Each structure stands twice: as C-alpha cells, then as structure tokens.
Amino acid sequence: MPRAQSGSSLQVRAGTYGKEIGLEDFGRFFDSVYLHYSKEHKADWKHDEFRGEVLKAFFAERTFSEFTPMLVVQYINERLKSVTKRGKTRSPVTVNKEVRLLSSVFNMAIQEGAATVNPCLSIPKSVKKKLPARNKRDRFLSYDEEAKLFSHLRGRRAHLWRIARFDLETGLRKSELTRLEAAHVNLSATSRFVTISDRRVEVKPGELLVTRSKNGQPRTIPLTGEARRIAEVQIDDETTRRYLFTSFRTGGMITEIKTGFTAAVRDAGLEDFRFHDLRHTFATRLNESGVDPFTIRDLLGHSTTAMSGDYTHTSPERRRAAINMMSRKPAGTILDSVKIPA
C-alpha cells in the first residue's frame, strides 16, 4: 500500500492530512488516491473502477467518519435484493467483491490518515455468511470433450484454435492471454531480462512472461511443446504485431473471442463450458499429474495467506518439471503432432 507523501507526514501524525485536502470524503479519496494506486499496481484495476462507481452511487458524499457497520450492512442487504440489467437477482459473490473493495479503500484511508476505523471489520457474522467469496466451479474438459471442441475450431474459427489451445497449455487468464506481447515469449536459446517497475525479471529459454498477474506480480510460465509450436507460428505470421494474438480488425489487442468460441462450444455439444474453463482444465491436469499445490499456485499466478516465507515459492526448474509432467497425455488424445490449422 502507498504511504502518505513525506511532505504530509506531520499532517498525518496530527490527524489533519485528509481533512486539509478534502480526502475525508469517500468518493474523492477513492478517485484521487485508491484508484490511482489500483491503476499503477493491479492488472484488474478496471474492476475496481466500475465497482467503485457502484459504491460511490450508494454512499454518495459521505465522509469516512459517517460510515458505520450497520450502514455497510444496509448496503449489503439492498444490493442482494437488487436486480441486474438482465433481470436476474444479483450474485452474492458480486456483492462480496464490492464489500472487499470497500474494506480495501478503508484500509488505505486509515494508512493515509483520512479514516480511523474500518467498519467492514465489524460486520456481523450472520451477514458475512450471505457473501461467499466465489461460486465454486469445477468445470473442465475431458480429453474426449477436448477433441470435440477443437474439431469445431477450424475454418473461419482457425485463429481461435491457436488461442484456445495456447490457453489450455499455459493456464493464462483471458486478460493475460490477450495482453501477452510477442516479445515476452522467449523462443531463443538464452535468457531475456525484462525490467518491470525497477525489478529485473529473467525469462528463461522456452518461457513466457506475464508482466502483471492478478496479484500484481510478474510470473513466468514454461511452454509445453504445443504452446511453443503455436508461439512460433504466431511470431512468424506477418500479421502479428505487438501482441502474440493480434486482432484482425484493429491490428492491436484481440477482443473478438467470445462469440466464435461460444459457437464452437455449442456445435461441439458441450454443456456449461466457458473460455475460462480452459484455465480450470490446465489446473486440473496439473493436479492429476501429481504436481504439488505450491507449484500449481505459482503457475496460475495465485496468491495465498495461508503460508508465508521464501520456501513456499517454487523454482523455475520445478515449474518446468510440472509442465513436463502435465504434457504427458494419455494415449489416444490430441498429441503434439496435431497440425495447427492455418
């Protein structure tokens, strides 16, 4: 978390920092301080931006001192009763994310001297139980379903074959996949070094670099043989520019994935399968191959507070071994010899 600037340190101690520049107002603090920090340090800052608009609409021009636990409970109850634009009841998971953002804003405001207490910490347990952290989803591809799906990513959907296959082989989030730059896929025989926020990150041969995971940190992922072949095809393609997967329409970051992929899922006869489930499949196959939880966590770019210390961070060699284990597919499945559609 960012700290108050040095010139304001005395004001923070005196309790006047937030008051003098007007940051005791929730909305103003969110826009001027929190969102600025989010844009600089979080890959999914856009989520903070639109959730922040929801929070500001409800809490209007309240100051931090006017917040109480019961006011937050009122917000939760009203949001749970509200209806989305599609006419559906709002998901408790969505409301949970909004309240977590509200709590994060308060934590930062306390650190900056604009607030003194976080009301989200005193919400009754009975209310907290209404807000699950996530909808548990275990959907992943069987090898038979994989064959059916990719058989429908041909012809005018051939570009989606490469995208979906690469995602299945790397476990990237969709946002990470679309932002992946060709220069951040190392197909050479020597390491590359990329500077990210004054940190020098090594990308070993046969690895790709995610410059900023959802947890705000960079990570590297070893390429499977299939992922490497796709990367080679993409990089050699004259239409590829900055991003590994370039939009045919704009020449920039690709966005046209959902419609064609959803149609392929439908034509393949798959039930309840989304693009993000390719990432679930990647994680499931790592687990089924006997890869330990810490290595899976590091490959997926997850963070955990259950344990701490350097010993929980896995080495590049261990991550490479995990990818090799996962790459050994059962006989009769799609193998690396499958031709990449043009």
Summarize the structure.
This protein has helices spanning 9-14, 17-20, 26-41, 45-59, 69-81, 92-111, 125-128, 143-151, 158-170, 174-179, 225-236, 258-267, 277-288, 293-300, 316-327; strands spanning 185-186, 192-196, 199-203, 207-210, 219-222.
Q: Mind explaining what this structure looks like?
A:
This protein has two domains: 6-128, DNA polymerase, domain 1 (Orthogonal Bundle), CATH 1.10.150; 143-327, Intergrase catalytic core (hpI Integrase, Chain A). It has 15 helices and five strands. A three-stranded antiparallel sheet has the order 1-4-5. A two-stranded antiparallel sheet has the order 2-3. The longest helix has 20 residues, at 92-111. Helix 4 crosses helix 6. It is mostly helical and 342 residues long. The protein has helices at residues 9-14, 17-20, 26-41, 45-59, 69-81, 92-111, 125-128, 143-151, 158-170, 174-179, 225-236, 258-267, 277-288, 293-300, 316-327, and strands at 185-186, 192-196, 199-203, 207-210, 219-222.
